[in-house]
Amino acid sequence: MEVLCSLYFLIITVTTGACDIVLNLTLREEEPVSTLVGNVASLSGLQKNMTPEVFQSLRYSFLDQAKTDDLFRIDNEAGDLLTNAVIDREKQCGFNQDCLFKFDVAAHSPVYSRFEILSVRVTLTDINDHMPTFPSSIVNKTLSESAVIGTTIQLDEALDLDSTSQNGIQSYTMITADSPFLFSATKTSEGVSLQLKLKSAINRENIDHYELIIVAVDGGSDPRTGSLTVNVEVVDENDNSPQFYRDVYDVSLREDRDVGFQVIQLTATDKDIGANGQVAYKFNVRQSFLAEINEYFMINETTGKITLKNKLSQNTKKSFNITVDASDQGKPPKVSQCIVRVFIIDFENNKPVVRITLLSGSTGAISESSSVGTVIAHVTVEDSDSGSNGIVTCQIASDHFQLQTVLNRGYIVVISKPLDRELSDKYNLSVECSDQGLPPLSTLSTIVVPIADVNDNAPLFYKTVYQASIRENNAFGDGVTQVLAKDRDHGQNSEIRYILPLESKEKLAINEDTGVITANYRFDRENESSYSLLVLAVDKGDPALTGTATIQLTVSDENDNKPTFTVPMFQFFVMENMGPQLKVGSLSASDLDEGDNQKILFDFHPNFKNLPSSQMPFEILPSGSISTRRDLDREDRNKYTFDIVAIDQGIPRLTSTSRVVVYVADQNDNKPFITFPLFSNQTVSVSQLAKIGTIVTQIRAYDLDETGPNSQLRYSISAGNEKDVFSIGETSGSIYLKRTYEITKNTPFKLRINVSDMNVSHMQSSFQDLTIVLTLPPPTPQVLEDGGTKNIIITVAVVILTIVLSAVIITVIIILRRNDQKLLQSKGQDNLVKTMYSVPPLDGCSPPSLDKNPSDKVTSIVDSPRKKKGVSFTFEEENTQIFYSDPMDQGQRGSGSYSRPDNSQILNSLFVDGLGRSQYKQQDNMSDSSGEVTASDSGRGGSDLDLSMHLSKSDERHPRRTFKFRRNPDQGLHRNQYENINYVNTHDSRSDNQREAIPPRPPRLSCNSDNELQFHSDDSQTNPSYV
Question: Where is this chain compositionally biased, Polar residues type (predicted)?
Fold first, then answer.
């Protein structure tokens, strides 16, 4: 009983509880009528909350009698809940696991006006009152005697009407022993599958019927059972041939016998039944002298009786050998034969009577272990004739037996050679006795001597070595092979059971009766690919003999191993400029599997497949050979990294991934680039009074090849220094004043400067001319006494005029710039020149108006003798791009644009820092020039505005480049208004000596009408110089 809540009472006219009282009761099914379920009065606990008088006055009744289904009744006064019928749980609740009856009982007092509702829950429990029942208690099944081992017979499961699982069917078992069947009960989604499985061969001729008892047991405390009788009738197969009692029958026939005389009655039996056991007889059609046999003899096909067909004559043969066939009616029929030897005798003399008696008793069997000389039979001879007709001599026709005379007692038959039942299980013992009459008469008596078996042969397997295979990762119980052995002995001595030695049991299991071998171990070919295991065949003789065979078990491969690369990462080195189809190296991997599972093909990882040769200049053959698809240039890229996969050819295919790093080795394919002197700036000067050892200037050059001998430079003067006035540092490139040289006027020395790398085998070199002017010191000024005062006045006037003009110009510039700034600020834009370099407008140009249309451009072009191709940097409205234009390269390479992330750094590198080796230092403090720039130029440039980088002489003919920067008008007045600048490399791959060069200082600005800022390079003979 369970009280779910406390009771609260109010003092009013009618008192009721604040909440329901629930009583949980339990009742077993099948209880008799009036069984007490429980007393609701005492179980309710009402007596705790009221006086005894009130509690005793309570009366109890059902609130709704229909809910009890007439199964219960209640005592009105005492409150006892009783059964009103025998309740069957299966009838009320079926197979539900829970069987619950719910109803309410009213407890009310007619005296004290009390009323309570008691909720009653009666749980009906199951008892084991039903036994398991099969659909039919007897089942008849048929099975052919030729059925293979493993053939199954399906049976219907039993049914238990008890509704709970614990009282339901728990197990099945077969109680019949010594049957060739295995019984199994397997749970399935639809119930239980009952099967009989044939575990050994059956022979109808031995047993034609099996009666099997299957028992189902339920799970009650007192388990109940139900049984099923399975009658298995073995269906006959034509597996037996008819058998004659003898192989040879000898018959004597008097020549005076009448037609129809029975010569012999033949009988052959067949162990089969039905048509398979019906025997028909006939003369063999392939025997010799068939025509004569059919002339004198006939045979009854049904009975096997041979009778005389025609009267014998004196010219008839004296003997006939008749071969008789006995065939059954099976499909196909089986045939056996016997030979009937008919001897024709003269009827006027009596032949001897011969009786052979075996000494081995009723069975007549002789042990094959009997020794030579053992007596096996006694021969008795009688002849009723007298005289020579009664004198009889006997002889035996056998290789294993001989006759010995017993004085006046006939003959005994003794063993003359060892017997072997396995060679012959019976011997036809024929004794022929002849009298000495004229003609002599003889009697041939033949008996069959059976040979009893001795266990003298061990079982012999059909194969001494069984080749078997099993796949690795097999399941326990997987079939491996079946071994079969035979024993030449008979009966129990030939019954064989198969066993495995202890070392073989670790890997295999065997069925003792069938020889079926299954796996008892999960094989792994990679650990061991083959096993040599023994299996034994033991007969049931006494003592038992054993035969042995070997199982050569091969574990076949499954693709369960991924390819493994021989190294964690492949590194190869390849020389640049070696052309396509150059072998870089070979990939190597191994796979522990075998066959196709071991064959490995190589390919790019999917992330690197189908890339153009510009991104992936290599190809991989399936064999793993890596070769180039195009020329490699170390200066473009010195290392390539990509992922490759090794794929085996198994099913499913397994792959492994590794990484390949190809380093491009340097080839000395770049000449040194001389950046000073240049054709536009190749003159320096030094005073005649400079000290010996003074640095006149320094040669500037670099080599794009890899660091090492290919890029280490050596400087020399190859011509023009015949006076030995100058020397050059071999590694530094500094030119020194070597000695004092007397001159009467400014004297130029045209030196041929040679710069070469240090590659011994393939040296690259460049040269350039440098003119050094050895200058006289300036003359001492002479003061004119007469004109001294006049010169001073002129000088002062010029200075004053200069100051006034400068002040006016500065004032105009300030006013113009202030007006421009006001205009730009009103439109939220900044002055391009102020933003970039903060330089004043050039003469003849207005500051660029960045707030106008994109077509408003300001352009300034440095004077050049002729127009060349150019590179322009253009600031567009959307973003800023650098466009490369080359009139000479049209049709060979297209224009391109490239995005750079940090524009301020790019501008700084473009106009301030320069590129690579473009940094210059002023090391010449003694000459009239500073660095590479002098006041005494060659006449082709070289002023302050010509501080630029120049390439070697081979680049002289390259036309001019132009860089355009286009403004983005959507951006305000801040430093990033020229963002997204893309720079196009102007290096022409057709020349080994061409490289882009960036000026080391900001260029001069020029204005045009398209709001563009252009930087032009112009040199009529060399690569561009950017101003």
Answer: 895-904, 921-937
Alpha-helical runs (H) found in 45-176: 52-56, 89-93
User: CA 879, CA 976: separation in Å to the nearest integer?
Assistant: 11
User: Residues 368-379: pLDDT tens digits?
Assistant: 888 898 998 899
Please state, in angstroms and rounded to a whole number, the distance separating the CA atoms of residues 725 and 748.
12
Secondary structure letter of residue 856 according to DSSP: B
Cis before 854? omega within 30 = no
Token reading at 439? 């003609």
In this structure, which long-range contacts are made by residues 64-71, counting pairs with CB atoms below 8 Å and at least 24 apart in sequence? 64/103, 64/104, 67/101, 67/102, 67/103, 67/104, 68/101, 68/103, 71/101
Of 328 and 891, the structure prediction assigns the larger pLDDT to 328
In this structure, the dihedral spanned by the alpha carbons of residues 807, 811, 813 and 819, taken in order and rounded to 10 degrees, is 180
pLDDT tens-digit readout, 208-230: 899 999 998 988 777 888 899 99
Peptide bond into 439 cis (omega under 30): yes
CB 328 within 8 A of CB 352: no
- Strand arrangement, sheet containing 880-884: 880-884, 871-875, 962-966, 1012-1016
Reading the block at residue 11, the tokens are 């003092």
Q: DSSP state, 806?
A: H
CB 88 within 8 A of CB 30: yes
Sequence-ordered list of residues with C-beta below 8 angstroms from that of 504, at least 6 positions apart, any chain: 533, 534, 535, 551
Among 394, 674, 368, residue whose Cα is nearest residue 541: 368
Instruction: Give residue 788's pLDDT.
Output: 58
Tell me which residue has tokens 């052979």.
356
**Distance between CA atoms of residues 539 and 494, nearest Å:** 6
> How far is it, in rounded angstroms, from Cα 1003 to Cα 946?
10
Coil, helix or strand at residue 785 = coil
Q: How much is the pLDDT for 922?
A: 36
Main-chain dihedrals φ then ψ at residue 1026, nearest 5 degrees? -100, 130
Is the peptide bond prior to 652 cis by the omega test (within 30 degrees of 0)?
A: yes
**3-state DSSP percent of the chain in helix, strand and coil, to 5:** 10, 35, 50
Distance between CA atoms of residues 400 and 893, nearest Å: 111
Decide if 95 contacts 165 (C-beta within 8 A). Answer: no
Nearest partner of 884 among 867, 899, 875, 897, judged by Cα: 897
Q: Which helix H or strand E contains 471, and what residues bound it? A: strand 465-471
Q: Give CA–CA dist 304/345, Å, rounded.
A: 23
- The enclosing H or E element of 793 equals helix 788-826
Query: Is the pLDDT reported for residue 597 higher than 50?
Result: yes
DSSP line for 649-686: -SSS--EEEEEEEEEEE--S----EEEESBTTB-EEEE
C-alpha span between 756 and 731 (Å, rounded): 10
Residues in the chain: 1027
Spatial CB neighbours of 696, under 8 Å, sequence gap ≥ 6: 684, 686, 690, 726, 735, 736, 737, 772, 924, 926, 927
Largest CA distance in the chain: 208
What is the identity of the amino acid at 426? K
List phi, psi (to 5°) of 42. -75, -35
| Integer Cα distance of 246 and 428 in angstroms | 8
Q: Comparing C-alpha atoms, which of 602, 607, 648 is closest to residue 626?
A: 602
Amino acid at 456: D
Return left, alpha or beta for 624; rule: phi > 0 is left, psi -120 to 50 is alpha, else beta.
left
Cα–Cα distance for residue pair 929/922, rounded to 1 Å: 9
Q: Cα–Cα distance between 903 and 880 in angstroms, integer?
A: 10
Contact 708, 668 (CB under 8 A): no
Q: Are 948 and 999 in contact (CB under 8 A)?
A: yes
> Between β-strands 655-665 and 569-575, what pairing exists: parallel, antiparallel or unpaired?
parallel
Phi, psi torsion values for 880, nearest 5 degrees: -105, 130
Query: How confident is the model at residue 588, as a pLDDT?
Result: 95
Rounded Cα distance, 667 and 497, in Å: 81
